[in-house]
Specification:
- The chain is mostly beta strands.
- It has one domain: Hypothetical Protein Tm1070, Chain: A (Sandwich), CATH 2.60.290.
- It has one helix and seven strands, in the order ββββαβββ.
- The strands form two sheets. Strands 4-1-6-7 form a four-stranded antiparallel beta sheet, with no helix packed on it. A three-stranded antiparallel beta sheet has the order 3-2-5, with no helix packed on it.
- β2 and β3 form a beta hairpin.
- The radius of gyration is 14 Å and the shape is globular.
- The model has no long low-confidence stretch (mean pLDDT 94).
Length: 94
């Protein structure tokens, strides 16, 4: 999961995974202003492995940061690292 903070100031960002059974897992990250941050979901959220989930990404605080969130998947083929991939931009909920 890739998160870009397009604001000029740092942001506290909550990443919440919502699993099919309704349970959740939450982590908070501080993302510097005008930067991009990667969340390696299987590493950061071990409970997500081999499970289906949705994600909500929210900037916290009185003045929430402007975020751009995308899902990216990469794969290697024939010994070539990142030989293929795809991405999708997240949908804003509010």
């Amino acid at each position: 999961m890739l998160i870009a903070n397009t604001s000029s100031t740092a942001a506290d960002v909550d990443v919440t995974l919502i699993f099919g059974n309704g349970s959740t897992a939450v982590k908070t990250y501080q993302i510097p202003g005008n930067s991009r941050f990667n969340v390696q979901v299987p590493v950061e959220f071990p409970a997500s492995q081999e499970r289906r989930f949705g994600a909500i990404v929210e900037s916290r605080g009185a003045t929430p940061a402007r975020l751009v969130v995308e899902r990216s998947i990469y794969s290697d083929a024939s010994g070539v690292v990142f030989a293929a991939g795809s991405n999708a931009v997240a949908t804003r909920l509010r």
